[in-house]
């Protein structure tokens, strides 16, 4: 009876981790469109490394939220309503990020392109921060009443842990963005990726480590600490790999570091999915927030069949676009004139 | 300010807006995939050009659908948390399936299609667009399964005051869904038809205005060329083909919506009789379909049922819509309200969930001005678009469009008619189910105990200020983005086929730009010419 909620808890943790890793590098590249790139050809190379895949990566977020709705409606409802303002910003940020990717290259003036670049960089940064904040709040809690409704006003969710989680996601996305550019480009972005990762990688991962420690300190078990150590080790491997220019290893180890870190955090809080900071009896857990066994069984079959298929065709697309991009691969920008 | 009203405005605005993009995505996606299939089979250049041009417009619109779609999934939890808790056991499942089955397919394969033109074998590239379009159609199915459950709950039993799913198959084959889904798809198809027709008309007109195509006194069309591939004979065939396809697609789309709409009305009269009555502004039982009813202006407010005066009605038509005969009475509002009061109560329960509305009297009557006119705008706009398409077929039978600027403008602005019909239909069906968010299924098997008032659905912990903030910022951003999208679509339409196919006129420009072209540093250019991406942002 308790297997299904636990299974779905794990699955949702996997979906969020997948989102952080996959859209993480899209968001990182998006931030670097303004944070690093200095000229048009750099920006176009960067944009086109994520061009074929970013939309599929964003679906991980939609799936994670949809799976929460289906499997843990009380968790979904309390978390999303409680974080009303940060999620409004998330939505705006994701809207601007998506539209700027498609419309940037269709603008005619340098000023319009610059405006879209700001939309993309700002949107990516705000989306990463607010999603990190949301995941931190769901592990450290906010004031909830017995019905699961937030009390204490529109900013009652605000906490140091939440801000640490936001910074963690931004730092991790930047690191992933660099690692992806190192892996997928030739020329100046690749050189810059090497430069930044070999010097600053620990700095990018510091807030993630802080969040992991904050959560692990709240519980007595050893396993979250072990996983956190594994995450630290993977981070060290990534750093080392970046220094010796093994870009594939750096990327993989960074993803592994996030997977181990997320596993540590989710394991540390299990079975609580959203704690109430005013009364432990108001905690939402995987067992009191979940859907019926019938619904979970149906959804399990759907997930067991569909997830491998999705992974297979996603992998195929990454394989098709496996080649590094260089400025010389980018066609001249196309100016549309009336016929 | 009441969070409930603001949240309802927000849901209405964001959903109607999202559904400006969705039908064009579905309809135009089907068209583009079909065009590419025809090109693949015949190898004829005009179909390649059509695929590329319409495909480009498809993408400009698609991204807006993606961007505004996430809002939909998030706002159930954000603004309607009590609804999400109540229905989560059954309503979340189709949403999660939509993401897992449909959205991944759509997004991943569309990326493959956009960037895969030179990279993939033709057959696999063609499969990519079909996979993406099938993903869009699947997503419509799943989200309509969720919506149909709100209109007609099935496959659940009440456990501890909450509907708990006991039959997913019943949810996915809800009879409401089985008519709702084709109605929506045909609605999307009619949007695509008018879109093709209007834009192709513009370009055929432009070719005549520029003196490229001429019409002989006996009506024979002489197709010309400017020497540029942007305006050659194949270009004519692109627009001529698009115009004829568009007109037929619009007609098929309308006929499809009419037949499925008729089936919907027959279910509606059983499942939501009040919505049917409100669609007719019918206070008393009757068989006539109202063509025009007005509220009696002498009375203040004119919201009471007795103020409505039928000006002109077609006897028997309403009875035909609802029952397939001309004599069976369709119950009016005055008959239905006592029935609803008896079955579902006269006052909202004294439950804190209703906030200030606890204990208030329930108004079972939807806003009739909206339902009555929504229903009629839907039918009128849909019908006019189809009629215009049929006329367009006749007017252009000799091979091109008349050299009339007003007629061209009419064809272009006619694109908006099916959009209006779609929006009006949704506003009608969603507002017609008020005051319920989950409409009671009248089937007396226990399932008739499953319903929820909209007043109980809103997030209890969220303040009016928060919802107002999101309503304002989302509306502002949406308004700006609508302007941007329309500007971009207009620019790409005016650019003609080369807008979606720069390679078409690339050689012509090269004479001016020098031989290096896009190759970058000189010397590298020739060696890496084949490396250049077929498409890049």
Question: Can you put this structure into words, describing what you see?
Answer:
The complex is a heterodimer of chains A (339) and B (537). Chain A is an all-alpha fold. Chain A contains eleven helices and two strands; from the N terminus they run H-H-H-H-H-H-H-H-H-H-E-E-H. In chain A, strands 1-2 form a two-stranded antiparallel sheet. Chain A starts with a helix and ends in a 19-residue tail after the last helix. The mean pLDDT of chain A is 94. Chain B is 65% helix and 6% strand. Chain B has helices at residues 3-42, 45-79, 81-115, 122-151, 168-172, 175-209, 233-271, 273-280, 317-323, 333-344, 368-395, 405-413, 416-431, 464-494, 497-500, 503-513, 524-527; strands at residues 156-159, 162-165, 214-215, 221-222, 289-295, 308-314, 436-438, 452-453. In chain B, the strands form four sheets. A two-stranded antiparallel sheet of chain B has the order 1-2. In chain B, a hairpin with a 2-residue loop joins strand 1 and strand 2 (162-165). In chain B, helix 2 (45-79) packs antiparallel against helix 3. The two termini of chain B are 45 Å apart. Mean pLDDT of chain B is 88; it is low at 297-302 and 511-528. Chains A and B meet through helix 2, helix 3, helix 4, helix 5 and helix 11 of A and helix 2, helix 3, helix 14 and helix 15 of B.
